[in-house]
Each structure stands twice: as C-alpha cells, then as structure tokens.
Design brief:
46% of the residues lie in helices and 6% in strands. The N terminus is likely disordered. Strand 6 and strand 7 form a beta hairpin. The strands form 4 sheets. A two-stranded antiparallel sheet has the order 1-5. A two-stranded antiparallel sheet has the order 2-3. Strands 4-8 form a two-stranded antiparallel ribbon. By secondary structure, it is mainly alpha-helical. The chain is built from 19 helices and 8 strands. The protein has a single domain, classed as Serine Threonine Protein Phosphatase 5, Tetratricopeptide repeat.
C-alpha cells in the first residue's frame, strides 16, 4: 500500500465535519478534530460512514465511479475502443496492462484506499464505544455497511488480479488487509488465495451482517439487505455453489423490473429496479477522461461492437427490442449518451434484472429448466414482445438455455461494468485468445505495490 493512503485517511474522516451554519466569530471552534471527537458524535459518525461510499467511486472517480468501471467492459466482447490514448484504456482493451500502467496503479490504490478506510471506520466504532452514542442496533448497521464497502472493493479487485476460481481455487489473488492502517511501516502483507478472498467477502456480507442492514427497498445508494445478498449471490456463483446462490437471490424481494428499460439511466435514477448505485452530483462527479459518459458519449472512444459482439447476433439485435432501439445510437451506447453533462449519471452496480438472470443461470445449472426459462423470459419480455421475438425461450434446455441466458445478460448489461467479471467467473477466454494462465489474462500487481510490499509475491500458508 502507498503511504499516502494511510495519511490521507484521517484527513478524509475529519475534514468532512466542519459546519458553515454559524460564523466562526459566533463561537469557538476546535483547531483540530480527532477520531475521538468524530466517533463520539452521531452526526459526525454518520458523515464518516457516508464518506466510505464515496471511496468506492475513487478520487475523480478513478474506481467504480468511472474509469475502472469502464475497464471491465473494455475487457469484454461487446465494446470496441477506438482511441489510441492509454489514458482512455486502450491498454485494457488490447489486454496488455502491465505493472506500470496508470489505470493499474490507480485501480489498486483506490480499491485499497476504500478497504483501509472501511477498516479504520469499523475499528473506530468499536474503540470509541460509538454504540453508546448511537445505539447498538445502529452501530451494528454502520459496521455492516462498512464491511459491505470493504467486500465490494475486494470483489472488484479480485476480478482483475486473480485467475478464475473455476480454474484454480488456490490461485494467488490479493493481500487481505483487514486492519486499519494510519501510518507507514505496515506495507508488507503476503497474498491470499482467491478462495480466502471469497471467504472474506462472504464473511463481510454474511447473513448475520445482512440482518443488521436496512431492508428499505427505496434506499439505493447505501448497503441494504438486498445489496449484500446480491454480492453473496455473485460470489456463490463464482464458486459454482448454485443452491447457496439461489437462496441468496430468492431472498432479494421488494423490487420489480420497470417497464421502461431506459429509466435506470436518466433522472432520478432510483427506480424500483435499482438495488445499489453510485450517485453523482454537481460537486461530486468524475473528472476529465474518467466518466463513463466521456468514454461512450462521443463515439470516438468506446463504441458498440456490431460486427462480432452481442448486438450483431440475430436474436440480440432485433429491430423491436427496446434495448437495441434505445441504446444503439449509431454505434454509441445510449445508456451513457447525454446532450449536456452526462458526468451526473449514476452508476448502476446492482439491479433486479441481474437478480433475475442470475437466478435463471443458477436454476439452469441445477436442472430446474422451467424456473430458468421463466426468469429469463421475465427480463427478455420486458424489452421484446412475444410477437416480435424469434427466440423461443420455452423450447430451450441444456447448453442452449445457458447460452441464451449468457447472451441476454451481455445485452442487458452492456456498458455496466459486468462483462469482464462474467468472463473471469466462467473461466472463459478473452479476446485475441487470451486464455486463463496466459500473460495479461489477469492484471499484474502494480509496480507501486511491488516496491512497497516486500511480500507481494509471497502466498500465505
């Protein structure tokens, strides 16, 4: 880890709490705010918690709020990157990200920054007896939310830096840093296997943690029971534990597929389908060459692959498919196009359509063909009327059913940061025959980690 991560953490926690409601002439202000002050005050503690979600976006949205989010689709089959500029992810698209690439260093830095800030928050709640101030139930909820943030950061990192669990359960994945660090001298940390990383994620979103979270389905920008269950489901699917994934997915209730498929991508963004999103505002939005909007809006950087991608295939390029009509704008991805400032568009991370299609796959893998067809039909029929659909879902089974579910997911979530993760999960090859075990299939640890962490290449026992 970089020393700056640890030094900046306390500044992040303490700087958010100055109030401008009263003039400094009206009352005496402390010159320094401390953790003891922050975590002994209900409002300041909540502000610190909310700040954790901002870290998932990354400064200038260099993590899930922008560039890394786009990177996952640049590793997929359905987007073409036309820009030779490395700052706009051509290295990611060409599958040659090395330890010196800036997107590699930034992804690692901001991912672990989110992890470390969550660690410090959890420890501070306990160290300063914050439960006595806000109550034990709210303290438990806050800790569960912080663990969700940590789990999300690990989940997205492990899907860049580790070989697939499906291929090698003991593959070297990531250093598991679970203790808050506030100063230098704690950089050395051996790597854990992908199994241990997944086990840690599942621990962070265990049923015990889920029970502490809010069940409010109207809450879209913080961890809820449904968001934690969705992360459980994703990990169980990566581990091919289909029964556990079904249990998690069927527990996601209170959400519906909205009639207008475009609603997730225009104000107010918080539809009945949205489960968890990263919001944007005028004062908190991506910097230049960081936003999904800038990557997709002009048609000069990332465009839809209509030659070999999913939108080139007969049953997934239908003229009356609402997704094709709305999102294929002369090759530009309409989810992110905007005539004014698309940097304000929220980033959908989890929505109910994914729950449905994940369940479809899990049911198909469990030989529950009827349930798989029904879940697939729920999503597909939202966008394609039966009279206009050449795909007969009711006749699908076996490998053909699984392929239809996979293609439906590619079409439904194109440009939403899932493509590269799905390929890793299934142990499939990337473009240009980049297969598991070959160079650049996974990202190498960045040079910053290699320099600062003397144990970076050591696999813990």
């Amino acid at each position: 880890m970089k020393k700056l991560v640890f030094i900046s953490l306390f500044a992040f926690i303490t700087s958010a709490f100055w109030s401008c409601k009263e003039s400094f002439l009206d009352q005496e202000r402390p010159l320094v705010s401390t953790e003891a002050i922050v975590f002994s005050d209900a409002a300041k503690t909540e502000s610190a918690l909310l700040g954790l979600y901002a870290t998932l976006k990354g400064a200038d949205c260099n993590f899930l709020g922008g560039r890394t989010y786009v990177a996952y689709d640049n590793r997929g089959y359905d987007i073409i990157n036309l820009d030779p500029n490395f700052i706009t992810l051509i290295g990611v698209y060409n599958m040659d990200v090395d330890p010196t690439r800036q997107e590699n260093k930034d992804t690692w830095f901001y991912g672990y920054q989110a992890i470390n800030r969550a660690n410090v928050f959890i420890e501070s709640i306990e160290a300063y007896n914050t439960a006595e101030v806000i109550g034990s139930d709210l303290a438990a909820q806050y800790i569960a939310e912080a663990k969700f943030v940590r789990a999300m950061a690990y989940y997205y990192l492990v899907n860049l830096y580790s070989e697939p669990y499906k291929i090698n359960k003991n593959a070297k994945a990531l250093p598991l840093r679970l203790t808050g660090i506030k100063g230098s001298g704690f950089n050395d940390c051996a790597s854990s296997t992908i199994t241990k990383v997944y086990e840690q994620i599942l621990s962070d979103v265990s049923n015990n943690e889920v029970s502490a979270l809010s069940g409010d389905t109207k809450l879209k920008t913080r961890a809820t029971k449904a968001a934690a269950l969705m992360l459980q489901m994703r990990v169980y699917m990566a581990m091919e534990n289909w029964p556990a994934a079904i249990t998690a997915g069927t527990a996601v209730t209170g959400y519906t597929l909205v009639e207008d498929v475009t609603a997730q991508f225009k104000t107010p963004y918080n539809t009945d389908e949205s489960i968890f999103s990263l919001p944007m505002s005028a004062n908190d939005r991506p910097n230049t060459q960081r936003s999904s909007w800038e990557f997709y809006n002009t048609g000069r950087i990332c465009v839809i692959d209509k030659q070999t991608g999913v939108m080139s295939m007969p049953n997934y390029s239908l003229a009356k498919d609402k997704r094709v009509v709305a999102f294929d704008q002369d090759g530009k991805l309409g989810k992110w196009t905007d005539p004014t400032d698309g940097r304000l568009k929220w980033h959908p991370i989890m929505r109910f359509a994914e729950t449905k299609l994940n369940l479809a796959e899990c049911y198909a893998q469990s030989n529950n063909v009827d349930a798989a067809r029904a879940a697939l039909s729920d999503v597909r029929s939202r966008s394609v009327a039966a009279a206009d659909d050449a795909l007969n879902v009711s006749a699908l089974s076996g490998a053909a059913l699984l392929e239809a579910i996979a293609l439906e997911k590619r079409l439904e979530f194109i440009g939403e940061g899932l493509a590269g993760i799905e390929i890793i999960r299934k142990g499939e090859s990337f473009r240009n025959n980049t297969t598991p075990g070959t160079p650049f299939y996974t990202w190498p640890y960045p040079e910053t980690e290699r320099i600062l962490n003397k144990l970076w290449d050591v696999l813990e026992n």
